[in-house]
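tool_log.txt
---
The assistant was asked to compare two proteins side by side. It first ran the structure predictor on the initial sequence, then on the second. Raw inputs and outputs are pasted verbatim so the downstream comparison step can read them without reformatting.
(1)
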Amino acid sequence: HAKHPRNAGALEVLTHRGKAQNALCGDEAEIFLNVKKGVLADIGYEIQGCILSKAALSMVSESMKGKKLIMIARSSAGDVFKLLGFIPTPSRTKCVLFGFEAIRDLLSRG
């Protein structure tokens, strides 16, 4: 996922667009979402960040694509750690959760 990120790039058709920044390390992302009938139909992003935040956002985007918004809203940091297969150190937790939190925040704003 770090070398070959999934869903990277802007979407041509979208319903949500937002920017996020990790103040701790300077990672920045622009998130593009296309929601149809309560489902995250498509997702794209452009990210400038560390390899961990890039890989995590790629994996999270793959896992969220096609899911109902209610299921995304119920997901947690623990789900992300399970997806990645490890619990990061406290200093890297924000990197791992950066994209996940940005997507959920964007969806919560409608």
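(2)
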Amino acid sequence: EDKEGDAEYKVSTIAVQFGVSFARWSGVFVLLLTLGGLLFFMVSFYKAEAKKDFYYLLLAVAIPVVVVAGMLTMAKTKEQYAKVGLGLKLIMLFGILSIPAFYIFHNYLS
């Protein structure tokens, strides 16, 4: 998002060291790896009849990961990268909120 500032202050980021394109595609790769791990758990939840857990992960985490990966592939401006960053923060928030959500699903909504 701020490659120029990083370069000015000699911060060694992937974008500064290898270029914006490499950093973008590295980010997409990491998101796809994350999605692959997430799908493993989602399939396990689905097979275990934990449908609420499955749908929470699908709607709150998996679909947003795909959307953010798409946004990242098309990002060109600082504003677009800022939206990608916001999307990643929301995904992390919903991932963390899965802990109390699953607890509530299994202890109060069974």
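---
observation on (2): The chain has a mean pLDDT of 93. Residues 78-107 form the longest helix (30 residues).
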